[in-house]
Design a protein that fits this description.
Layout: H1 21-41, H2 46-53, H3 57-73, H4 75-85, H5 87-105, H6 111-140, H7 145-153, H8 155-186, H9 189-195, H10 210-215, H11 230-246, H12 248-259, H13 264-289, H14 298-316, H15 322-351, H16 353-385, H17 388-413, H18 423-439, H19 449-462, E1 469-471, E2 482-484, E3 490-492, E4 495-497
Antiparallel strand pairs: 1-2, 3-4
Helix pairs in contact: 1-3, 1-6, 1-7, 1-8, 1-9, 3-6, 3-16, 4-5, 4-6, 4-16, 5-6, 5-8, 5-9, 6-16, 7-13, 7-15, 8-13, 11-15, 11-16, 11-17, 12-13, 12-17, 13-15, 14-15, 14-17, 15-16, 16-17
Length: about 500
């Protein structure tokens, strides 16, 4: 592919913020939609799978769980492959894996085959597409990166609104086997999206620069030095706590509506409302995050989005009828969209472009553990209490705690260094002013008028710019520069001319 040599993230090429970057954004939009919506779209086929293999609903639910676990848990593996081969080759292979898994699953003879094919192989293929697409997006956009991340994140609700109805149509016309086969062919579009990820090529170097290129150390396959960054540690802890409760309400809100006595179709409409609001909330939040005053404080906007989401869960736990659940889904869609638009933008801001490929893999691995614990833990709480209110309260408390952890720890432990003026420029200015002051200094008044002109003339001939010596202090502070001139410049007619002061 030719991309592995330059696709390392530190080629020194300035992000174009447009041009081919819009094609990269489109590819990332499609990949994000497949990655997040596909585990939910597969659930449409669960009833037929239960009848085909004689298993329970909990057994089929493992398909989506394994898909999500592979999407998050294979983060470090994706980071190693990206740092070794580049984003484009990894995504092309990932598209083949994603498609092959669904095609093989269409010939499955047991639920274990579905686990291995759809869960493991397709999940790994989606992971190999999702993470590199985000890496390439953040390399192509810098000034417009918040907007780009918001637009790419909008692919999740858009794909969810499209894939779920499509899955129902395929199930009705072709059965689950034909549906899996067609979805497998649809996932080949991941390869086309991977082909769009053209690596940024740096300027051509001359032969003189070749020794420097050879001396440059090879990039690490997985850079664990990000754990030395306080900002990354704070973000990782807060994200892990957040994921414990973030995905719980969308999983249980339909069952909650049915528990209140609503019809199945009416209850399922809640997810459509949530996804529709989420679709517009993500790009809108990306626009807000890109504002000049907001962008340096993006981490606090992310904290506010998490706090907003957690409070929505806490208030929604007291819903007792369908209209209140509709209001809950509207506000949850707004806050959920804000979180989705900002989570990777904030991580990129913290670690930078060069370390982002390793950082996102490690973060996704930690989040994978939280994803496996969060919804099942909420389910056990529901089994014990038989009350959905406690499930939503638990989810809201977890997200609110993560918001406070992120905001307070950044406020206490992350301090920005004050900007200092450019030392070389200031040093040059100081030297120039000192020379001018010495050259223009008026000598002591001689006794007679005739001697004055002669003295002034002799001083101008004697004092030259090269006589000015600059003495640099031991510290790097520019304000402490000392400029020395010869203590005794000249002696004319017995009058010693000395400078009045030294800087």
């Amino acid at each position: 592919m030719g991309g592995a040599a330059v696709d390392t993230g530190d080629s020194g090429v300035k992000a174009p913020d447009g041009g081919w970057g819009w094609s990269v954004l489109f590819g990332c939009f499609v990949i994000t939609g497949f990655s997040y919506a596909f585990p939910k779209a597969v659930s449409v086929f669960f009833k037929e799978l239960i009848q085909e293999f004689g298993v329970g609903y909990s057994d089929t639910a493992w398909i989506s769980s394994i898909l999500l676990a592979m999407l998050y848990g294979s983060g470090p593996l994706c980071s190693i492959l990206v740092n070794r081969f580049g984003c484009r080759p990894v995504m092309m292979v990932g598209g083949i894996f994603a498609s092959l898994g669904m095609i093989m699953a269409s010939f499955a003879t047991s639920i274990i085959h579905i686990y291995l094919c759809t869960g493991v192989i397709t999940g790994l293929g989606l992971a190999l597409n999702f993470q590199p697409s985000l890496i390439m997006l953040n390399r192509y956009f810098s000034e417009k990166r918040p907007l780009a991340n918001g637009l790419a994140a909008a692919g999740s609700p858009v794909a969810l609104c499209c894939l779920s109805p499509l899955g129902q149509v395929l199930q009705y016309k072709f059965g689950w086997r034909g549906g899996f086969l067609i979805l497998g062919g649809l996932l080949l579009n991941c390869c086309a999206c991977g082909a769009l990820m053209r690596p940024l090529v740096g300027p051509k170097k001359s032969k003189v620069d070749e020794p420097e290129k050879d001396a440059k150390p090879k990039p690490k396959l997985l850079d664990f030095s990000v754990f030395k960054d306080r900002g990354f540690l704070i973000y990782t802890v807060a994200a892990a706590i957040m994921v414990l409760g973030l995905f719980v309400p969308p999983v249980f809100v339909v069952s909650y509506a049915k528990e209140l006595g609503n019809e199945d179709t009416k209850s399922a409409l809640l997810l459509t409302i949530l996804g529709f609001v989420d679709m517009f909330a993500r790009p809108a939040c990306g626009v807000i995050a890109g504002l000049k005053w907001v962008r340096p404080r993006c981490v606090y906007l992310f904290s506010f989005a998490m706090l907003f989401n957690g409070i929505t869960d806490l208030v929604g736990s007291f819903s007792k009828d369908y209209p209140s659940l509709v209001v809950f889904c509207i506000f949850f869609g707004i806050s959920y969209g804000m979180v989705g638009a900002l989570q990777f933008e904030v991580l990129m801001t913290i670690v930078g472009t060069a370390k982002f490929s390793s950082a996102i893999g490690l973060v996704l691995l930690v989040e994978a553990l939280a994803v496996l614990v969060g919804p099942p833990g909420a389910g056990r709480l529901l089994d014990a209490t038989k009350n959905y209110m406690y499930v939503f309260l638990l989810a809201g408390c977890e997200v609110v705690v993560s918001a406070f952890v992120l905001a307070i720890c950044n406020w206490l432990f992350i301090k920005k260094k004050p900007q200092e003026p450019d030392p070389p420029a200031k040093m040059e200015m100081a030297i120039t002013e000192a020379e001018m002051e010495v050259l223009n200094k008026t000598p002591q008044e001689p006794e007679n008028k005739d001697d004055a002109g002669e003295t002034r003339k002799e001083q101008q001939e004697t004092v030259k710019p090269e006589d000015v010596k600059v003495k640099e202090p031991e510290s790097t502070g520019v304000d402490s520069l000392e400029i020395e001139v010869p203590k005794q410049l000249t002696e004319v007619n017995g009058v010693v001319v000395e400078p009045e002061s030294s800087l």
